[in-house]
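Usage

Read records sequentially. Each one opens with the input sequence:
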Amino acid sequence: MNFSVARDLYSKTRAVGYEDISDPHEIIHLTLRELRRSLGVLAQGKVVATELRNTHMTRAFTAIYILQSSLDFDVGGEIAANLFRIYEFCRTQLTLAFRRDPAANLDKCVQFIDEITAAWGEIAEKSR
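and closes with the structure output:
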């Protein structure tokens, strides 16, 4: 995926500061953090305002799309496949939450995304 397309797509959902980033690694890291933030808000279940709920739903779905479409299965192999499955799980849980299905497990999504974000940050530290 062209990372400028990802940056532009996410900026349309009003993510602050996205237009200033050109490093693909940092785009993914920011996308993970934004996904975590939106999932966290939605998982709390305290989002009463429909507009705020819809904003976080849109941001979360967009972030998952960016993350899934940025995976390189040829280079990433099993890791890319596992990440895709995790992102797909989160997308499914978001869909359930969108339908207000009580079976939605956004807390599990938050946990997964926290682990991925931490690992992604460690990769960035090692590559510097």
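Summary fields computed downstream for this record:
- The chain is about 75% helix and 0% strand.
- The chain has one domain: 3-127.
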